[in-house]
Amino acid sequence: xxxAAMCFDGVDDEALVDAAHELLACAGSVESWCGYGDAAExxxxxxxxxxxxxxxxxxxxxxxxxxxxxxxxxxxxxxQRAGFEAIARTFGGHDPGHALxxxxxxxxxxxxxxxxxEGRGPKSVGxxxxxxxxxxxxxxxxxxxxxx
Length: 148
Description:
Blueprint: E1 3-7, H1 13-19, H2 21-26, E2 29-37, H3 39-50, H4 65-81, E3 86-93, H5 96-103, E4 108-113, H6 127-135, E5 140-143
Helix pairs in contact: 5-6
């Protein structure tokens, strides 16, 4: 039996649950996941050092362990409202995408939001989703919602 893991990031999460409802109904268990890491800030600092420039603030918000736990718990509440029993899990490391891909196994179907980029193809999703798509050990369902 497969397990479904919804990878929440706080962006249009209700639409993500709605879009994956049929898949979730077929899963033996459902989990609410959120990854966190500090790679974005470190990468920007490294680029700034190489170019002898002051570091710029990150272009996107990074999520710390406490924020990831709150996002995963909010995901559990959304899943429960949709009629699913769920548990929250967070995964940390150097980068959120790496943390999520490493945590996944062949028994999990990961459900990801598509991010905020327009268009189609590899560059139409954010870097975290792209890494998870490329490196997850099991299948990934990518959901493009109206806001994505």
